[in-house]
Amino acid sequence: MSDKLPEYDVFAIKYADRQAKRANHFIGGDPHDLPMPMDYFVWVITGAGRTVVVDSGFTAEVAAQRKRNHLRCPIDSLSMVGVDAKRVTDVILTHLHYDHVGNFHKFPQARFHLQEKEMQFVTGHHMRYPFFRHSFEIEEVVGIVRLNFEGRIEQLSGAIDFAPGITLHPTPGHTPGLQIVRVHTKRGWVVLASDSSHYYENMQRNRPFTTAFNIGDMIDSYRVVEKLAPTPAHIVPGHDPLVMQEYPAPERSLDGIVVRLDVAPKVIERPKL
Amino acid sequence: MKTQRIGAYEITKVAEFERMAVDSTFLFGNVTPAIIAANRDWLGPTFVEDGSDRLILSFHTFIIRTPHHVILVDTCNGNHKQRPSMMAWNMLETPYLATLAAAGVRPEQVDYVMCTHLHTDHVGWNTQLVDGRWVPTFPNAKYLMAKTEFDHFNRLHQANPAQPINRGSFVDSVLPVVEHGRAVMIDTSHVLEGQAGNGIWLTPAPGHTPGHVQIRIGAGNGLAVMSGDIIHHPL
Question: Where are the beta strands (DSSP E) in chain B?
C-alpha cells in the first residue's frame, strides 16, 4: 500500500456576485472610489474515491433579501463537476455565515464538519448584537442545531487530519470558529482560505476585511495561512473575482462558472494603487 | 437603478446580471489587443475586464413607463432554462422578478413585452416555469414580435424540430407565448404609442437577425434609441 498522498482535483464554482466598492472590503476604508465586485463560491474536492464539498453557498431566497446577484444554485451546479449532492457524505463548513451554510438542506446524506467554536458563537451571547448577528440567518443556525441533535454534525476542536491529503485548520478572526481547508494536489498543498482572506489584497496588505469578530486574530490567521501554503500562489481567497481570471476552466463551456485550483494560476498583474 | 426621462416617458434599466466576461473576438472579428488598450481608459472596468482583454457584457431589460402603459424591452435569459450550449445562461436562478418589483413593476402590470429580436438572451423571461410547463411571465401583456423575425425562426424550427433553435429558447420562451394567444405579430415600423417622430415607434434594423428592430422614443427635443444588438458593447 502506497504512502504517497492522494492528488485531488479541486474546483471553485461561482454561483453569485455583487457590485461593491474598494472601501467596502477594508477596515479603515480606501480612498480610491473604484469598483471591487465580490464573487461567491463553493469548493469541491474529488479524487481517491472521495468527494468532499466545502461550504454550501446561500439560497436564492436569502440572496433576494440581501440583494446579492444570485446566478445559479451552487448545489445544482455541483453536477458540472460530476458531483450529485444527494449522494455527498461529507460537507466541510468553514463557518456559519449565510453565504457559506445556506443550502445545507440540499445534502440529505451528508455529515457536516465545523469547528465547535463556531457552533458556540452562533448560540452564544454575541448574537444579541446586530453587528455580529447580521451575517447569520436564524433559520440556518436553527437548522444546524437540529442536525446536531440528529447526530449529523461533527464538531471539531482545532486542527485535524480530515482525510489523507485533506487537513483542516482553525483561522479565527472573521468569526471565532472559522476554519480553512488544505488539500493535496498534483501541484502540492493548496489552501482554500475562504474568509480568512476574502480578497488576495486583505492578506497581502495586512488590511482586514470589514466583517470582523477579532481583528488581531484575523491578522495572526494570515500568517497561519501563509505557513500552510508552499507559495502565495497556492492560497485561494474566499471571494476574489481574480480567482475566476487566474485559474483555468476545466472546459471551455464552464468558462466564468467553474475553475480548477489544482493547477498553477496565471498571476495577473495588479495595478499599483 | 437609473431612470431617465424623455418627455413624459420614463426609462429604467433593470439588470438580470451585469458581468459576463467574453473573449473580445467573440464579439468583434477584427479586434486586436492594441485596440482594447487604446480604448481601455474610457471603457473602464465596467466594460473591459481588469488584467485581461475580455469584454464585459450585461443582460438587462429596459422598462418604458408611458402615461398609458408599462412596456418591457427585451427579457434577458430567464430562469431554469436548459442551455447546454451556453453554460453561463444555463439553469440560472436570478432574482430578476424581485429586481423588477423593486423598480415598481409587478408582472401583471406589464402591458407590452417588446423583444428587439428573438435571440436567446433577449426572450428568456417571456416565460417562466410553472408546474413543469412554460407559461407567459406577464399574464396581461401583449408580446409584440416582428413578423419577419418570428417567421424566420419558426421556419427553421418547423424544418427540423429536433434542432434547438436559438439554443432552445424558441421552444421554451417564444412558442409558449404564441400558444397562450399572447403574441401579436407586427411589422418593423410599428408604432407603439403616439406617432413616428413623437411617441414610441420601431424602425427596421435587419442584419444581426432578419427582423431585428430599433426602438425609438421621441418627445419634444428628446430622442432615445434602443439599439438592441446592433450595438452589443460600447467598443
Answer: 3-6, 9-22, 55-65, 70-73, 112-114, 127-130, 133-136, 142-146, 183-186, 191-195, 198-204, 213-219, 222-226
| B35 vs B14: CA distance, rounded Å | 30
Nearest alpha-carbon partner for A58 in A105, A103, A112: A103
Q: Which of A19, A64, A269 sits opposite B98 (nearest CB)?
A: A64
Q: What is the pLDDT of residues A134-154, one digit of tens each?
A: 999 999 999 999 999 999 999
In A, what residues contact B, Cβ < 8 A?
Answer: 17, 19, 34-35, 37, 60, 63-64, 69-73, 76-77, 80, 242, 245, 253-257, 268-271
pLDDT in tens, B3-49: 999 988 999 999 999 889 998 988 898 999 999 999 999 998 889 98
Assembly ipTM = 0.76
Across-strand partners of B135? B128
Question: Which chain A positions have a beta carbon within 8 Å of B124's beta carbon?
Answer: none
Which cell numbers in the block locate residue B123? 426572450
Q: What is the pTM of this model?
A: 0.87
A17, A198, A213, A226 from A210: Cα distances, Å = 18, 10, 10, 21
Residue A91 grid coordinates: 460537507
Q: Which helix (H) or strand (E) covers residue A227, if one does?
A: helix A215-228
Q: Name the amino acid, one letter, at A160.
A: I
